[in-house]
Design goal:
With 199 residues, this protein is of the alpha+beta class. The chain contains five helices and four strands, in the order αββαββααα. Helix 4 (107-124) runs antiparallel to helix 5 (133-142). It starts with 9 loop residues before the first helix and ends in a 57-residue tail after the last helix.
Amino acid sequence: MGRAQPKVPAEYVVGITDGEGCFYVNISESAAYRMGWQVQLHFHLKLQEADKDLLWKIRNTLDCGNVYYQKETRSNHAQCYRYTVSSQKDIFEKVIPFFKKYPLQSTSKLKSFTFFCRIADLVREKQHLMPGGVEQIRVLKEQMNKRTSGSRSAGNPHATWEREVPQLSQSARQPKGAGSTRSLTFRGPKVNSVTRGKS
């Protein structure tokens, strides 16, 4: 029998995710997809090099993902390691169920996770392959990992970042057929590469 891999309590994973975790959705152009866009969901945790072993324990607890060295080029910053889950199967079957079973305590992180789950549902339903589906995902993504300091909500405790998410019409949910158009207008900014956000 092999040696048991070291783990940490589920509550510890929740706590460190509240402070250092990031649920991220990347939308990029891809000719491989019918609508010309690829949607990928990721989960990240970044810690200083001295805490690399802790990331491996978290990886063992969630039973997915990997730990990578992330070179820090900024002066006076310690080198870091990042735990990343990029497999969509692992996101759907391990990461999301884990944080539903053990809820996040941070209001802002829980909010990001809630939108992350809504996007995951749309991807599972393959709405990102339908006209208007990517736009709906883009609007949801805008609600994630929001910073309030120095933003339009600064000084106004009642300000909200909520924005109505457009619902797909019945025709928009149908697969592309004869006579349909490939054009799709987005109100959000064009995203071509991963830009990691952190709440």
